From TrEMBL:
Transmembrane segments: none
Amino-acid positions noted as binding ATP in the UniProt annotation, renumbered to this chain: 25-32
Source taxonomy: Bacteria, Pseudomonadati, Pseudomonadota, Alphaproteobacteria, Hyphomicrobiales
EC number(s) stated in the UniProt entry for this protein: 5.6.2.4
Species name: Methylocystis heyeri
Keywords of the record: ATP-binding, DNA-binding, Helicase, Hydrolase, Isomerase, Nucleotide-binding, Plasmid
Entry annotated with the keyword DNA-binding: yes
Record's protein name: DNA 3'-5' helicase
Reactions accelerated catalytically: ATP + H2O = ADP + phosphate + H(+); Couples ATP hydrolysis with the unwinding of duplex DNA by translocating in the 3'-5' direction
One BP term from GO: recombinational repair
Length: 575
């Protein structure tokens, strides 16, 4: 987008629209800038001093919007009465924090990692994460446990009973994550008197609520959005249903489109025209939707609209993801003049992306030295706020293992509860350790290990020395990698949602490529392949000037036929 903003007619419709709105926006449609200009329009009025609530579902999207609002001089100081934050944070701030949880007298506290708590009904039982259970019913989520290979001979009753006790006890103690927050908010809104009083209060503070990335709503979220619409505030939903990749949140696609019908025809708006990507990338993005959802192909209208580059299919052999993917991708992006750090390799999992980018993937098993090194590497390669928090927790757990405060990884949550560490007072020390343990230029694995021993040689529990706890390991050298602007970053697709890059390489694995292509050819509508196909769509739509999609050679021609349907240039390169 150029520095002098010249909105399209569709963007002007959104900027000037006074009522509720349901906005369908294609990738790169300029919705962030459009939201900024909508805010500028509202803030310039003196007849209504109420604020605006901008909500989204990822920290990355909120950070981008807030930065844009500040850079363009739109965000007021102080921010009050407006609000900029995630949907979950909004619920916490206005529905849970001030009122507590049900009948509990405990002060509510946020525990972001609660979904990773281990549910283990007996010592020899397979542990399951709490996020594999429905919070409201404690029942197992079939898709989650299937991925974990969970199939007990005597059924799941013991796990569900344990999960139910954990959920009830933690809520009674006021320990909540955002999954609980949504359930508690929904429960509160079933009280008509409470809902009416709170709705009136919110309508007194906000004139408009904008929900971006609305495809990431789950059914409970849509109920809350519907309640907001009835409070007197204008509500604007902006979404691309094809980017709904948060199935673990119970995200909706068909339900969202059905919900759009509640909006009057004049309130159903569209934003087309891709200001981000080149013509070939726009054509590929359109073809990466299921056949029934393709509609009119996206059109490149931004600064890259004359870029003639094709989309590249990197055809690889073998069952595993080879490092040759990353090497070829770097060759294809050299002419862009961008640092490698701005041209990520993306895959459904960080492990697959790392292999393709040439970054070693070592399973640390139960070795304390490798667990610590692995945690330090994740800490320094963490990309966005959610990943950073998980990486910090992983590092804290590894430090506790080394010190002997816990005997095994599964003891971590019990330790946190027993020591009352939910307030996060441990974070400052662990952040300091993470920074101190960064691999230095020219440092060998032995030198790093010596430094790690010195830094952790205190607060040890038991008679074992730090040298016995952190011993040399043949795989340590492979695991230790110094972050460099010359290395391709490896990212999971979830972590880059809402971002954009000059070039992107998307990796399809031999395990998933065939079922994804079945979806894109209209042969399958199964839930799991549909979600995986949407991930590829999201990943490809991050690209501005170069897009490469790596796929097993057995699927390369099929992929080319899908992407070639619009007549744009698609080039297969065997690697």
């Amino acid at each position: 987008m150029t520095s002098v903003y010249k909105p399209t007619d569709e963007q002007l419709n959104v900027i000037s629209h006074e009522g509720h709105a349901f906005v369908l926006a294609c990738p790169g449609a300029g919705k962030t800038r459009t939201m900024v200009e909508r805010a500028r329009t509202l803030f310039s009025r003196i007849d209504d001093r109420r604020g605006i609530a901008f909500l989204s579902f990822t920290n990355a999207a909120i950070d981008e919007l807030e930065a844009r609002l500040q850079r363009l001089g739109v965000l007021p100081t102080p921010l009050f009465p407006s609000f900029v934050g995630t949907f979950d944070r909004f619920l916490w701030h206005f529905l849970i924090g001030p009122f507590g949880v049900g009948n509990s007298r405990a002060t509510p506290r946020l525990v972001p990692g609660k979904g990773d708590w281990e549910v283990k009904p007996f010592d020899t039982a397979q542990p399951l994460p709490l996020k594999a259970f429905e919070r409201s019913t404690s029942k197992i989520i079939a898709d989650e446990v299937r991925r974990l290979g969970f199939a007990p001979q005597k059924g799941a009753a013991a796990w569900e009973t344990t999960a139910k006790k954990m959920i009830e006890r933690s809520r009674a103690e006021g320990l909540l994550d955002f999954e609980d927050v949504r359930d508690c908010a929904r429960e509160r809104l079933t009280d008509p008197d409470f809902a009416a009083r709170l709705g009136a209060a919110l309508a007194g503070r906000f004139r408009e609520v904008v929900v971006d990335e609305a495809q990431d709503c789950n059914p409970a979220d849509l109920q809350i959005v519907d309640w907001l619409r009835g409070t007197g505030m204008r509500v604007k939903l902006i979404c691309d249903p094809n980017q709904a990749i948060y199935a673990f949140r119970g995200g909706v696609t068909d339900e969202l489109l059905a919900y759009s019908k509640k909006f009057d025809r004049e309130d159903q708006l569209t934003m087309s025209g891709n200001f981000r990507s080149s013509p070939a990338i726009c054509a590929a993005i359109s073809q990466l939707r299921p056949p029934h959802a393709r509609g009119t192909p996206d059109v490149a209208v931004g600064p890259n609209k004359h870029d003639p580059s094709p989309v590249y299919i990197l055809s690889y052999g073998g069952a595993g993801v080879p490092t040759s993917i990353g090497r070829k991708f770097q060759e294809l992006t050299e002419s862009l003049g961008e640092l490698a750090y701005a041209t990520p390799v993306l895959a459904s999992t960080w492990q697959s992306a790392s292999k393709a980018a040439g970054r070693p993937v070592v399973d640390p098993g139960g070795d304390k030295t490798l667990l610590l090194a692995d945690a330090v590497m994740h800490f320094h390669f963490a990309f966005e706020a959610g990943n950073r928090r998980r990486a910090l927790t992983r590092l804290h757990r590894s430090v506790l293992l080394v010190r002997g405060a816990i005997a095994k990884k599964s003891d971590y949550q019990d330790h946190i509860e027993a020591q009352g560490l939910h307030d996060g007072r441990w974070r400052a020390e662990i952040i300091g350790l993470g920074e101190a343990l960064q691999l230095r230029p020219g440092e060998t694995d032995y030198q790093w290990l010596d430094r790690a021993r010195q830094l952790l040689d205190h607060d040890l529990i038991g008679s074992s020395t730090i040298k016995n706890r952190l011993h040399a390991h043949v795989d340590l050298k492979t695991m230790l990698v110094a972050p460099s602007t010359n290395d391709l970053p490896a990212r999971s697709i979830h972590s880059v949602k809402g971002l954009e890059f000059p070039a992107v390489c998307v990796v399809l694995t031999s395990k998933g490529a065939g079922s994804i292509l079945d979806v894109l050819e209209g042969k399958s509508t199964a839930a799991e392949p549909m979600e995986q196909a949407r991930k590829i769509y999201v990943a490809a739509s991050r690209a501005e000037r170069r897009l490469a999609i790596a796929t097993p050679k057995s699927q390369a021609n099929r992929l080319q036929q899908v992407l070639d349907a619009d007549g744009r240039s698609v080039e297969i390169i065997a690697i």
